[in-house]
């Protein structure tokens, strides 16, 4: 390298300049980028060093040899040598140019290094090397002197090397702006005409550096939090003149307008360079955590910085868009403003941000801009902040904007959030959102920590204050006297309304037995003098006042649809914090006969997908009524079912299910739910004709017909199924019946081995049993289905024995699957087998004494999603200690956080602790005073449903292979238990005697038989009669519908008769 550089610069000069410094040291000293620009030139120079040691001598030698050669053949060699010499000279020139460039680069780099060193030295000499303590007063240098130093410093600024210097500079600038000496305040340089433009560019660069540093700071670190406040103060100072002490002097008053424009220019430059995005980052990092890291003054400063350009631009759409997207979308921002920085919240209210944003988001284009920019979860946070602002403005701005502006904006935001969830759903829903449910989009960690507060904000939408404002039109509508006729003013349904509803059925329902029954009821009501609502109603479905109510209901229905995990919270707020349900009911009543059913049907013909707001009003009413479930008449709902309006929404199905559940949970007179006028024979004939309306009625509201008739209908379903499968008595006596052989000591094993592999059809058919005794011999016996019944009863008795660990008993002696059954081999297959055996017993009307826990039976019937079912109600019978602990948590007066609980459950399994999460991510979700009720219900649900989910599924699979699920819809859970184990009534000896069969010479008048009945009737107590029944039938309860339906029938047989046979005469 010395040979190459020697042609341009002496090596001693280079060595003197570099001293002992190595090239690598210089590269890493601070200007690696500039030095790297000459890397290619350096490589070329190094390649040249590997050329021949005497390149010029070789070329000349070739020329001499060719020139003095006498052979003509050397002409080609001469031309080749000439070409090589020419290339060599070109290479030499390139080497010289490379050396010059390399030298210039090194010299330039050395000059820049020296300049940076001198600039930093000047800065340190002027300001010192350490920031002043808070209690120290700085001695300010002349502003003009500082200006030139700062100009040079900004040009060489490096965040890594000059971070502390920039902090010192910031403190100087703030101190100088708080000085009224014109020579010392830094704004004086901006007032200098010769320096104004340079000063503006310099301040812009300084503020931009401050923004870049703020974006990377961690507010949870105390030192960096102080730096964040310092740089926010810097931004606040140079984007407005209100804090400039120099302007307080009267002599500088005329300069305020021009200086205000100057700060607006600086502010506009910051906005164009991403100020709002930086402010959002700072807010998210500082607020979206378990405990907010930002303090009130810092939050107030950020809000001030966000509002200044907005006010300066006279609330332009562009700035409104930025503040909506970047500031109002910060999770739980308004909550933090209310608790940490009320001054900032007051600023938003003073500047009417709520009203202006509502007006801005009204247009579809602006709404599209927001959603194209925001990720769906942050759009939800925007909605939450928006709702919180509305709650704060409930007494001022909200009443003016509630409808249609605020209602429209909230509905559109909810719909777009719902669309977002739909687009992010896929086959693998791996992400859990505590508000939106499952979808595939990853969840921001900052959102995860703030989502609890976001949910709290959303709950304000159905708070009493907001509901009152939103439904003000509904309140006014109900308060008015409907023009043109009387209305039903009662929140419930009066007799006149019922009569009117029933009268209208004839207009809309095709001729059938239910219609005729209603006609007869109508006649009796009219004869009693009942009045009715005028035909056509007092209001129209499409009227302005009704449409207003429907639009508000539509918004809340959208909330239920989108915020899937908060549905019960929404309905609770609507039902218990307002009079919405009875008021909407009164509006429905005023729409005409059958609550405007004809109007709804006409609208359905236009809006076939039931998307009109009027249908949303109906859906919301149905959803809300499920929580109240008062004694509404069912006439209107039957009308709805018969006109197939049930296709509107599953919420109507859900409502009718709740009506049904009231039959078992609320005490009413026996005929309360029955339509007595319905002739069961005619109704059953409608079902046999596969009448769609009758099928819908029996599926959705089976309790309108007596329980006895439903049991007969169930038996008819079974009989029809047997006939369809060819399982009549004649068929069963054929060789196709199944014969199994079981040992007394291995009932379960032998039965499982021989029956588990049978098809459902074979299990439904005749099964003959041959018992093998302990000696290995066939047992003698007369099989009139009694042997199979004995096998079935003994098998179920053994599998339900807790010692087998397939089932356990509650404190009330009721059976449920054991959560530790997996310790038994093939436990799920055994559960499926047991389910099939119990299904066989129900199929054959064999009563077995198996009392099941209701939380288990509810899953077998298919009612585990019941709206009126609460797992916590059943918990005391399963785990009294856990119930006691949960009750303690519920009534705990202090902070539940002190108990250090999470949404998880630790289970000790053979010495190993296994943690079960009660909800996704439950191990990291603490139990608080706000969510402890949810925790209690989730824990109870886990113990009674989740822990035995696999066992229950296997049992249901076996049971439903025999019993069709649609048949079970006829019964509630208690009724289903009665179907399995018999009726909860006293033993009717008269009925038992009338249905007893006699064999071997016995008859009803036989003396021994008379003794038996006389002892049972006169000497036995009720408990003893139940024990007798259990002895002879294996069940202590009589069968449903009496002993006529006992399978096999009770019989008395004389086994051995001697010569002195007594006929009993």
TrEMBL record:
<keyword id="KW-0436">Ligase</keyword>
<protein>
    <recommendedName>
        <fullName>HECT-type E3 ubiquitin transferase</fullName>
        <ecNumber>2.3.2.26</ecNumber>
    </recommendedName>
</protein>
<comment type="pathway">
    <text>Protein modification; protein ubiquitination.</text>
</comment>
<dbReference type="InterPro" id="IPR035983">
    <property type="entry name" value="Hect_E3_ubiquitin_ligase"/>
</dbReference>
<dbReference type="InterPro" id="IPR044611">
    <property type="entry name" value="E3A/B/C-like"/>
</dbReference>
<dbReference type="Pfam" id="PF00632">
    <property type="entry name" value="HECT"/>
</dbReference>
<dbReference type="InterPro" id="IPR000048">
    <property type="entry name" value="IQ_motif_EF-hand-BS"/>
</dbReference>
<dbReference type="GO" id="GO:0000209">
    <property type="term" value="P:protein polyubiquitination"/>
</dbReference>
<dbReference type="Pfam" id="PF00612">
    <property type="entry name" value="IQ"/>
</dbReference>
<dbReference type="GO" id="GO:0009966">
    <property type="term" value="P:regulation of signal transduction"/>
</dbReference>
<dbReference type="GO" id="GO:0016874">
    <property type="term" value="F:ligase activity"/>
</dbReference>
<keyword id="KW-0833">Ubl conjugation pathway</keyword>
<dbReference type="GO" id="GO:0061630">
    <property type="term" value="F:ubiquitin protein ligase activity"/>
</dbReference>
<feature type="domain" description="HECT">
    <location>
        <begin position="759"/>
        <end position="1051"/>
    </location>
</feature>
<dbReference type="GO" id="GO:0006511">
    <property type="term" value="P:ubiquitin-dependent protein catabolic process"/>
</dbReference>
<dbReference type="InterPro" id="IPR000569">
    <property type="entry name" value="HECT_dom"/>
</dbReference>
<keyword id="KW-0808">Transferase</keyword>
């Amino acid at each position: 390298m010395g040979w190459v550089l020697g042609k341009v610069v002496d090596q001693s000069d280079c060595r003197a300049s570099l001293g002992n410094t190595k090239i690598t040291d210089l590269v890493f000293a601070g200007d690696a980028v500039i030095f790297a620009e000459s890397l290619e030139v350096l490589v070329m120079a190094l390649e040249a060093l590997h050329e021949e040691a005497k390149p010029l001598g070789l070329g000349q030698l070739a020329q001499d040899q060719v020139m003095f050669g006498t052979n003509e053949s050397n002409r080609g060699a001469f031309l080749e040598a000439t070409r090589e010499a020419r290339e060599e000279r070109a290479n030499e020139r390139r080497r010289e140019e490379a050396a010059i460039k390399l030298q210039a680069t090194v010299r330039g780099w050395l000059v820049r290094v020296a300049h940076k060193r001198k600039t930093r030295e000047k800065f340190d000499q002027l300001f010192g090397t350490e920031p002043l303590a808070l209690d120290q007063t700085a001695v300010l240098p002349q502003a003009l002197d500082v200006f030139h130093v700062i100009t040079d410093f900004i040009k060489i600024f490096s965040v890594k090397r000059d971070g502390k210097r920039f902090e010192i500079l910031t403190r100087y600038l703030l101190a100088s702006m708080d000085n009224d000496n014109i020579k010392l305040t830094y704004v004086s340089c901006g007032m200098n005409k010769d320096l104004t433009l340079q000063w503006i560019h310099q301040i812009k660069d300084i503020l931009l550096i401050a923004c870049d540093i703020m974006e990377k700071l961690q507010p949870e670190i105390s030192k960096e939090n102080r730096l964040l406040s310092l740089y926010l103060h810097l931004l606040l100072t140079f984007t407005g003149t209100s804090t400039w002490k120099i302007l307080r002097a009267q002599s500088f008053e005329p300069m305020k307008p021009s200086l205000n424009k100057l700060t607006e220019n600086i502010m506009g430059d910051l906005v164009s360079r991403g100020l709002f995005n930086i402010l959002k980052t700072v807010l998210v990092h500082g607020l979206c955590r378990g405990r907010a890291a930002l303090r009130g003054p810092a939050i107030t400063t950020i809000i001030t910085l966000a509002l200044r350009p907005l006010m300066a631009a006279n609330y332009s759409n562009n700035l409104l868009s930025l503040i909506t997207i970047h500031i109002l979308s910060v999770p739980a921002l308004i909550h933090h403003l209310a608790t940490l920085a009320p001054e900032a919240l007051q600023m938003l209210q003073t500047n009417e941000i709520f009203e202006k944003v509502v007006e801005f988001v009204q247009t579809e284009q602006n709404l599209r801009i927001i959603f194209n920019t925001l990720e769906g979860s942050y759009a939800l946070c925007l909605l939450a902040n928006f709702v919180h602002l509305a709650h704060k403005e409930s007494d001022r701005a909200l009443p003016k904007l509630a409808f249609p502006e605020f209602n429209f904006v909230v509905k559109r935001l909810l719909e777009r959030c719902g669309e977002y969830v739909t687009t992010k759903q896929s086959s693998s829903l791996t992400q859990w959102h505590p508000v939106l449910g499952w979808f595939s989009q990853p969840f921001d960690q900052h959102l995860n920590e703030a989502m609890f507060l976001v949910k709290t904000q959303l709950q304000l939408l159905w708070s009493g204050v907001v509901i009152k404002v939103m439904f003000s039109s509904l309140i006014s509508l109900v308060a008015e006297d409907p023009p043109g006729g009387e209305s039903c003013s009662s929140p419930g349904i009066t007799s006149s309304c019922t009569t009117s509803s029933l009268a209208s059925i004839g207009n809309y329902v095709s001729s059938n037995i239910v219609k005729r029954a209603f006609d007869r009821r109508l006649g009796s009501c009219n004869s009693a003098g009942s009045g009715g609502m005028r035909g056509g109603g007092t209001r129209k479905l499409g009227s302005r006042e009704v449409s207003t109510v429907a639009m508000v209901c539509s918004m809340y229905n959208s909330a239920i649809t989108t915020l899937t995990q908060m549905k019960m919270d929404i309905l609770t707020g609507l039902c218990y914090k307002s009079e919405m349900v009875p008021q909407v009911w009164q509006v429905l009543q005023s729409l005409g006969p059958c609550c405007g059913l004809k109007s709804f049907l006409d609208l359905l013909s236009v809006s076939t997908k039931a998307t009109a707001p009027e249908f949303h009003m109906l859906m919301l009413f149905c959803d809300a009524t499920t929580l109240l479930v008062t004694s509404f008449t069912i006439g209107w709902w039957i009308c709805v079912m018969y006109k197939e309006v049930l296709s509107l929404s599953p919420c109507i199905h859900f409502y009718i299910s709740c009506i049904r559940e009231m039959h078992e949970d609320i005490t009413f007179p026996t005929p309360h739910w029955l339509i007595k006028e319905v002739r069961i024979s005619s109704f059953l004939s409608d079902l046999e004709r596969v009448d769609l309306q009758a099928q819908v009625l029996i599926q959705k509201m089976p309790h309108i017909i007596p329980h006895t008739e439903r049991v007969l209908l169930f038996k008819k379903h079974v009989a029809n199924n047997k006939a369809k499968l060819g399982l009549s008595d004649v068929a069963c006596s054929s060789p196709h019946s199944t014969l199994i052989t079981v040992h007394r000591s291995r009932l379960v094993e032998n039965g499982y081995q021989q029956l588990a592999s049978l098809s459902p059809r074979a299990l439904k058919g005749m099964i003959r049993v041959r018992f093998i005794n302990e000696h290995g011999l066939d047992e003698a016996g007369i099989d009139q289905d009694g042997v199979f019944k004995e096998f079935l009863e003994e098998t179920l008795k053994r599998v339900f024995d807790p010692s087998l660990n397939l089932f356990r008993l509650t404190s009330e002696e009721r059976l449920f699957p054991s959560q530790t059954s997996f310790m038994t081999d093939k436990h799920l297959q055994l559960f499926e087998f047991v389910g099939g055996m119990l299904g066989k017993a129900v199929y054959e009307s064999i009563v077995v004494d198996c009392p099941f826990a209701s939380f288990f039976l509810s899953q077998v019937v298919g009612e585990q999603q019941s709206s009126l079912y609460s797992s916590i109600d059943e918990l005391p019978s399963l785990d009294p200690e856990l119930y006691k602990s949960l009750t303690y948590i519920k009534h705990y007066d202090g902070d539940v956080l002190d108990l250090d609980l999470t949404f998880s459950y630790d289970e000790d399994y053979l010495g190993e602790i296994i943690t079960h999460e009660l909800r996704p991510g439950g191990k990291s979700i603490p139990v608080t005073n706000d969510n402890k009720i949810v925790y209690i219900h989730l824990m109870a649900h886990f113990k009674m449903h989740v822990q035995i989910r696999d066992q229950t599924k296997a049992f249901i699979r076996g049971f439903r292979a025999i019993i069709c699920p649609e048949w079970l819809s006829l019964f509630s859970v208690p009724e289903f238990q009665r179907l399995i184990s018999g009726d909860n009534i006293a033993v009717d000896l008269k009925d038992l005697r009338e249905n007893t069969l006699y064999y071997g010479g016995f008859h009803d008048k036989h003396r021994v038989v008379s003794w038996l009945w006389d002892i049972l009737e006169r000497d036995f107590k009720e408990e003893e009669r139940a024990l007798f029944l259990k002895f002879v039938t294996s069940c202590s309860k009589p069968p449903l519908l009496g002993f006529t339906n006992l399978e096999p029938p009770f019989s008395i047989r004389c086994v051995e008769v001697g010569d002195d046979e007594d006929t009993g005469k």
